[in-house]
Design a protein that fits this description.
This protein is α/β, with parallel strands linked by helices. The chain is 41% helix and 17% strand. The longest helix has 32 residues, at 453-484. It binds adenosine-5'-triphosphate.
């Protein structure tokens, strides 16, 4: 007899299926209350105009969709099935014919651009705050219906950003957007990387042997980029396109399929391109998720649980396992046990420095030991490579394959790559034979005279057969390598690649799940009946360019949603951290982790004085926590014209003065990090630091997530009479900032401005109570 719960679930499923076949409620109502209107806008609209229309429609709950590719793309407002369809003729709209919202004028294109390009107030994409709890358990259908247009809004926002940058009349305006780097020269061109060329570009400023730091920019690894002559514009045909491979403060390396000859000897510019593939894959994932609701598939057992219709289930008897990684602590063991016992979903909540990846690696090894085929993923290539390195180190014999474009992989994982393993396989050798034969046949074909009809026809037919044979042998090679693998490692978007389309797994493991869009996470989850997600929703969520899409919930992650929905039963929090001195940890533990974190013995009392070459007396004077107060020092914040990001030159001087004190105490420059929430302050600090501080890393807080340094100096920037603190109030950003430090953390800020916020006030109070207080005036000698 089915249980009551099962009967209820069945009834719910039936109701859901019935609803899926019915027209949406909005449409039903509109059909009943006819007439309804839909407006089809002309193809001549710019992406910016389309993005604005999407935003306004979304804000007013009007249905909206774009269809068609490239110049054929057009937007429709209103339901497709409206009783009256109005078509706006080409040329009827000019650039400033922007619709108005009910509440007033829509933002002007320049305001909109500034918000998008300017990151809220910050100068980078926005990180939305959590959506209201009411939105936490959508039905699968509601989630898909809500998210598809948000993905479209995000895509349009990125296209607008790319176009505004590359079409900017003045190159300086393009550079200010952060998407373009001007005046570069090639310092190095090296081969390798499975046939690609790596081009290392540096600033051409000064032109001589001294390499100036690159200006502040927003290019990061894996971005698609176009290389163009610097003297041309961003709309010119590129000399080459490639993928950003490595980013350093003074150089940027791009992986190209082939290096263009002309590029070597002239000043160059690099423009970031919008990545259409990612958006297409996200849309495909959502469509596949929608289909899985009725058609089933490997993930069918997960769907009810992940959309709140059923509770997570666990095996009652503990699953026996023998640790493969030595020294797992009690909370890490508990997390592994819970993951192995999960029948559908388990969450590993890993606060900073708690060994989340260590735990994930142990879970994967245990799954392999019991015969599972594992899909191991994360949002970023770097996180996946990190997993690969750790897995291979823990078990060199592990049958592991890393998929993805070789240009995006770390050199250390190339041997594990699908491409390398396919190249080494027998089927691939046979494919190579086919290619050789094709080449010979082509040469013969070219030598034939015009009249050798019969022979030409025969050779063409041979070439077709060989090409078919080559393709099928390549596919066989790929299928063989993937079929043999016990663990396949891929990025979340990589799981949607052609090669993995028909591969099913026993379990999907997602590391850094709190930094992945929910739609992206489903790419992995749809391939297995069980899933383990690891992350920390109390650190920064994924970056979303479109403010409107972020506000509508695009930045909310599945991890965060599941913590709210099933955290009590399905989540295990790692409670011992291996990074921070106890005083650094205490504030974050109290404010964000319910006082549940403890410091491992090895780090609880470690200080700078324990580092080699550090003077214990000077290090003692600096303390573990330091509050450097700019209050009353006249160190005001400033925003550059046309930019929303802020800088504070006085505070930058104080932060750099503190760095000099650390260096004087003997701390190595590479062990020091200066971080600040504002990109303009990053740029200013880099400009001001001088030669002696060149090896000190200066970065935004967002850019430093996942990293650590022995000593961290945080410049908080805000200093104004109104006490405005902007996005400093996001608890997750300050959590990330403070928890990067191992032995020393200095907070440079105006206590009068920052201290007015209750959350930040408690941060300052903690630093004052447990650390060294000084006035910035003492440091800069004012
Ligand atoms: N049980 C343990 N005993 C000793 N050291 C450990 C243990 N678990 C993890 N560590 C160490 O803690 C550090 C952080 O571990 P790991 O890289 O797994 O953490 P992470 O969760 O990926 O990092 P973060 O928490 O910052 O995201 C590493 O140096 C690791 O060796």
């Amino acid at each position: 007899m089915p249980s009551d719960a099962a009967l209820k679930r069945n009834a719910k499923n039936k109701e859901r299926q019935k609803r899926a076949l019915e027209p949406p409620a909005k449409l039903k109502a509109s059909v009943q209350d006819a007439p309804t209107v839909s407006i089809l806008f002309p193809t001549a609209l710019t992406p910016r105009q389309r993005a604005l229309l999407h935003e306004v429609a979304e804000g007013n709950s009007v249905a909206h969709a774009s269809a068609g590719e490239g110049a054929e793309r057009r937007i429709r407002l209103g339901e497709a099935a409206a009783s009256t369809a109005v078509e706006v003729p080409d040329g009827a709209l000019s650039d400033d014919a922007v619709p108005h919202t009910a509440a007033g004028a829509a933002p002007s294109p320049s305001q909109r651009g500034a918000r998008n390009l300017g990151a809220g107030e910050e100068g980078g994409p926005s990180r939305a705050l959590a959506v209201p709890p009411a939105a936490r358990a959508p039905t699968l259908e509601a989630f898909v219906a809500r998210t598809l247009p948000l993905i479209e809004m995000e895509r349009e926002a990125e296209v607008v950003q790319a176009l505004e940058s590359s079409a900017a009349a003045r190159p300086e305006a393009a550079a200010a957007s952060g998407r373009t780097l001007l005046n570069l020269r090639v310092r190095d061109a090296e081969g390798g990387l499975l046939g690609r060329t790596l081009l290392t570009l540096v600033s051409n400023k000064g032109g001589g042997s001294i390499v100036a730091p690159l200006p502040a920019h927003r290019l990061s690894t894996h971005d698609l980029v176009a290389l163009r002559p610097a003297k041309g514009g961003g709309a010119d045909a590129p000399l080459a396109s490639g993928v950003v491979y490595r980013v350093r403060e003074d150089s940027l390396t791009v992986a190209l399929e082939e290096a263009p000859d002309e590029a070597i000897d002239q000043p160059l510019r690099l423009d970031k391109l919008a990545n259409e593939v990612t958006y297409r894959r996200l849309r495909e994932t959502l469509t596949a998720l929608g289909r899985a609701a009725t058609a089933g598939g490997p993930a069918a057992p997960l769907l009810d649980v992940l959309f709140g219709a059923a509770a997570p289930r666990f095996q009652e008897a503990p699953v026996p396992w023998t640790p493969r990684i030595p020294r797992l602590d009690h909370s890490q063991r508990a997390a592994v046990s819970r993951a192995l016992a999960a029948k559908d979903i388990a969450l590993v909540h890993g606060p900073p420095g708690t060994g989340k990846t260590t735990t994930v690696v142990e879970i994967i090894l245990q799954e392999v030991a019991r015969g599972s085929k594992v899909l191991a993923t994360a949002a970023s290539n770097i996180a996946v490579d990190n997993l690969v390195e750790r897995l291979v180190a823990a078990d060199p014999k592990l049958k592991l394959v890393r998929t993805g474009h070789a240009a995006r992989l770390l050199p250390s994982v190339l041997a594990a790559s699908l491409e390398a393993q396919v190249l080494a396989s027998d089927s691939s050798a046979l494919a190579r034979d086919c290619r050789r034969e094709m080449k010979a046949a082509t040469v013969r074909l070219l030598k034939l005279g015009r009249k050798d009809y019969a022979e030409r026809r025969a050779l063409r037919s041979e070439l077709r057969t060989l090409a078919k044979e080559e393709r099928s042998r390549q596919q066989k090679a790929i299928a063989e390598v993937l079929g043999r693998a016990a663990v396949v490692c891929a990025t979340l978007t990589g799981t949607l690649s052609y090669e993995l389309r028909d591969v099913a797994f026993d379990v999907a493991v997602v590391d850094e799940a709190a930094q992945a869009l929910e739609a992206a996470t489903w790419g992995a989850l749809l391939k297995a009946p069980r899933a383990v997600l690891a992350g920390d929703h109390l650190q920064l969520p994924p970056t979303v360019i479109s403010d409107a899409a972020a506000r509508q919930g695009l930045a909310e992650t599945l991890f965060e949603r599941l913590q709210a929905l099933h955290g009590g039963v399905a989540s295990e929090m790692l409670a011992v951290q291996y990074r921070m001195h106890g005083d650094v940890m205490a504030w974050a533990s109290h404010e964000l982790y319910d006082d549940r974190l403890t410091a491992a013995d090895a780090v609880a009392a470690h200080t700078l004085a324990d580092l080699p070459d550090v003077d214990p007396r000077l290090a003692g004077e600096l303390g573990v926590l330091a509050l450097i107060d700019t209050a009353g020092c006249g160190m005001e914040e400033a925003a550059e014209e046309g930019s929303e990001s802020r800088a504070n030159p006085g505070e930058a001087r104080a932060a750099l003065a503190h760095v000099r004190r650390l260096l004087a105490a003997g701390v190595r420059p590479a062990d020091i990090g200066v971080i600040t929430p504002y990109n303009a302050q990053v740029a200013l600090l880099r400009e001001m630091r001088g030669e002696a501080l060149a090896a000190v890393e200066i970065s935004s807080v967002d850019g430093f997530q996942g990293r650590e340094k022995e000593a961290i100096v945080i410049s908080m920037v805000r200093c104004n009479a109104e006490g405005t603190i902007g996005f400093l109030s996001d608890r997750r950003r300050m959590n990330v900032a403070v928890t990067r430090a191992r032995r020393h953390c200095a907070l440079v800020c105006d206590s009068e401005t920052v201290g007015r916020d209750a959350f930040l006030g408690r941060l300052l109070a903690h630093f004052e109570a447990h650390g060294e207080y000084s006035s910035a005036a003492e440091l800069v000698g004012d």
